Amino acid sequence: MPAVRAEGLTKMFDGFKAVDAIDFQIEEGECFGFLGPNGAGKSTTMRMIHCGSPVTSGKLEVLGMDVNDSPRQIKQVIGVAPQENNLDPDFTVRRNLTVYGRYFDIPNGECGRRADRLLEFMQLSEKRDEMIPEISGGMKRRLIIARAMMNEPRMLILDEPTTGLDPQARHLIWEKVRELKRQKVTVLLTTHYMDEAERLCDRLVIMDHGKIILEGRPRELIDRVIGADVLEIDVPGDEMEAYVKERGWQYERTIDRLLVYTDQGQRVVAELKERFSMSYYLIRNATLEDVFLRSTGRALVE
After folding, report:
1. How far apart are CA 296 and CA 16, in angstroms?
2. What is the pTM of this model?
């Protein structure tokens, strides 16, 4: 049985279709990513999955239960780490965990034991008696994830878990997510960091305007949409762009660069150098960020 199954999932807000009849399936024990520009519908989809927003139409099952019929039962077995900091500033680090655990009717003694294990898991044991305003932003993010695990969830939802964190804190959270995967916990992830999605997600979808426009494994999507290499040419001329187009190569023109997508970067650059002068060029490996920008566009979304 899949962890999540959606068929024709739709969400409307006052006539606006935020999620437009999407289908997807998430297997138990995998890390599944929802990517997309602002307003794409990914956060709305996540809220429907954790029963924070009702489904307008379509079918959505979480851990074998219909979200319309069993919202309380679903909330009992999932954990949600929101993007915003909603820790209680009047409690200590440890107290934030034990109080939250009581919402799940976990006995006091067991709450304490789970809190201590999770503080150790997130490398926060030394901060257990600190008040929330006294700890760093990275520690708060780790504590929010630890709190989401107090009920020992079968599925963990992480909404932008590393936004604004320094590299050390980001990598620590990545290590913990990989450890959860080894424990067969299903992880749902939204992130604007494409390297994060590429490293952590077994599979992912890219959404835009409420629809799923791409779905697959990160490496497969890179190979399918971009290819192995990206050739970046600085300040290209119109004649060079016309030649690239005539050759049938996949490319994009930005304000100051020509991006050529190919599986044969060295051969392409050699051919271009025979015909045109290039002040600067770079051949690099294609990434998931290239896929994201090529599929959703480079214009800012407010």
Report:
1. 20
2. 0.90
